[in-house]
Model the fold of this input.
Amino acid sequence: MNISIAKPDDAPKILEVQKRAFAIEAQRYNNFSIRPIIETVDQYRMFFDMHTVLIIHQNEAIIGSVSVRLENGTTYLNRLIVEPSFHGKGFASRLIDAAVGYFPNCSRVELFTGCESFHNQAIYVHKGFTEFRRAELDGIEMIYMEKVIVR
Done:
């Protein structure tokens, strides 16, 4: 398994994995209109304009991804996904580690997850993230979490 920087040409494959991964969340919240489910390849390609997308792959198969962007010393981690058949094998953890370390001068990492996505929350807490606020997005209450980086 390798982690590398995705290219916009990877968007269709990433989007396929994203839709399968977020289908679980859509079912959990009975909300199938969340952005990661309904966005098109062209919309996802625009995501590359503001984010670096890291992918974890085995040979040519994309197993998961996460996006990162740096703003005012904070790394924003977004859309962590892993192919559902690979859940529970440490791929999310590896992607989080790669994302946290991507911008070596950041002082903080921020992300959000659904308030009922308990497994996701547990992974983030295990990685040192703590909740700092809640807000609604796409009709779902989100928990915003942060990790302060001490260098």
User: Anything to note?
Assistant: The two ends are 28 Å apart (CA to CA).
